């Protein structure tokens, strides 16, 4: 019995050897390497829901050189935050301070949403629908930002630019008949004056919202035709917007209609609003903080002006114009950190 068992083992050994001989050898693989590294992180303890300016400096003696990295609204306390822009060498000092936003700004938290309209949305733009409101794109807004609660008024524009180009004069009416160039010039001048006054950091900027930021803020985490619901018969739109039915063919002072869920007024109507992007079809699929194409001939405008019909005030509706056009467009501003 013992001899027979040995014969079986020998027979199996021969078979295994033959199998090994017939199988090509796998190339040697480099074993994985591991490195333990430190990272630039902060554990922030504070009031949940409060917005902080996270800033850094490289020299504590330079008290006016703090540069904002992010406006952060911690969802918990303590909250672990990491500086993904920190260089591999050198040193940074950090601080987190409660940000006292300038008046009339609303904090818009980061998040995701579906940009554009589905093909079956009621009264979706019938002309060139792929270009106008699609293809739908799953967009992630990775960082919070501040946005104007109201459209820029004629008084605000006059104080910064020294003139008022509007057709319908009224200090608290939204400025209109503004080209994209003049809207961006306003943002640049406002940035310079607010930096000089010490109200924003040395790298924070006022600018026009991207289209993605605008629609995200307009929808306020809703997916309906309007920020307040689908409203198939447009019976509630008069509570939120100035349009052809109720405007009397003129603009109106900002903030007279109901706001959207995030406290933004006139997102549906009064004047169209310039956006930062060149106009183009959406990318489709998924996108992180989309900025639009690098070049183009027209810039996007959202929101809809006072003389258009109800379907042009849906959250997904968009239009475009040449940047030097001075028509029915106004704008609102956003405040964001600039380059680190």
Explain this structure.
The chain is α+β, with helices and mostly antiparallel strands and 340 residues long. The protein contains five helices and 16 strands. It has a four-stranded antiparallel β-sheet. It has a four-stranded mixed β-sheet with strand order 14-13-11-15. A three-stranded antiparallel β-sheet has the order 3-2-5, with no helix packed on it. The longest helix has 21 residues, at 2-22. It is globular. The relative contact order is 0.16. Residues 1-24 have low confidence and may be disordered.
Kindly name the structural category: alpha+beta
Strand content: 15-25%
In spatial order, strands of the major sheet run 6-9-16-10
Silhouette = globular
**Average residue pLDDT:** 89
In N-to-C order, the SSE pattern is HEEEEEEEHEEHHEHEEEEEE
N- to C-terminal distance: 81 Å
| Proportion of helical residues | 10-25%
The DSSP helix count reads: 5
Note the topology.
Elements: H1 2-22, E1 41-44, E2 52-57, E3 67-72, E4 79-82, E5 93-98, E6 105-108, E7 111-115, H2 129-133, E8 137-141, E9 145-148, H3 154-161, H4 180-196, E10 204-207, H5 211-219, E11 272-278, E12 285-288, E13 299-302, E14 318-321, E15 329-330, E16 334-337
Parallel strand pairs: 8-12, 11-15
Antiparallel strand pairs: 1-4, 2-3, 2-5, 6-9, 7-8, 9-16, 10-16, 11-13, 13-14
């Amino acid at each position: 019995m013992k001899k027979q068992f040995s014969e079986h083992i020998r027979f199996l050994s021969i078979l295994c050897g033959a199998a090994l001989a017939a199988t090509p050898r796998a190339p040697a693989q480099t074993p994985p390497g591991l490195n333990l590294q430190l990272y630039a992180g902060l554990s922030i303890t504070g009031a949940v829901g409060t917005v902080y300016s996270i800033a850094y400096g490289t020299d504590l003696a330079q008290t006016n050189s703090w540069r904002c990295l992010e406006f952060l609204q911690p969802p918990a306390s303590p909250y672990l935050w990491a500086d993904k822009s920190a260089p591999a060498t050198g040193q940074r000092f950090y601080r987190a301070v409660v940000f006292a936003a300038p008046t009339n700004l609303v904090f818009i938290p980061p998040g995701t949403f579906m940009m554009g309209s589905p093909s079956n949305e009621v009264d979706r733009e019938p002309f060139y629908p792929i270009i106008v409101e699609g293809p739908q794109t799953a967009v992630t807004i990775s960082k919070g930002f501040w946005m104007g609660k109201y459209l820029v008024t004629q008084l605000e524009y006059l104080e910064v630019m020294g003139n008022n180009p509007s057709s319908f004069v009224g200090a608290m009416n939204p400025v209109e008949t503004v080209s994209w160039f003049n809207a961006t010039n306003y943002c640049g001048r406002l940035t310079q004056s607010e930096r000089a006054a010490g109200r924003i950091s040395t790298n924070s900027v006022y600018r026009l919202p991207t289209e993605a930021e605008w629609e995200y803020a307009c929808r306020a985490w809703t997916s309906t035709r309007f920020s307040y619901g689908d409203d198939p018969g447009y019976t509630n739109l008069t509570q939120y917007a100035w349009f052809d039915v109720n405007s009397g063919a003129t603009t109106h002072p900002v903030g007279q209609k109901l706001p959207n869920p995030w406290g933004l007024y006139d997102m549906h109507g009064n004047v169209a609003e310039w956006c930062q992007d060149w106009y183009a079809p959406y990318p489709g699929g998924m996108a992180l903080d989309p900025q639009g194409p690098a070049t183009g001939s027209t810039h996007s405008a959202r929101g809809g002006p006072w003389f258009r019909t109800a379907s042009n005030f849906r959250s997904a509706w968009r239009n475009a114009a040449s940047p030097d056009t001075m028509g029915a467009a106004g704008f609102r501003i956003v405040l964001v950190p600039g380059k680190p």
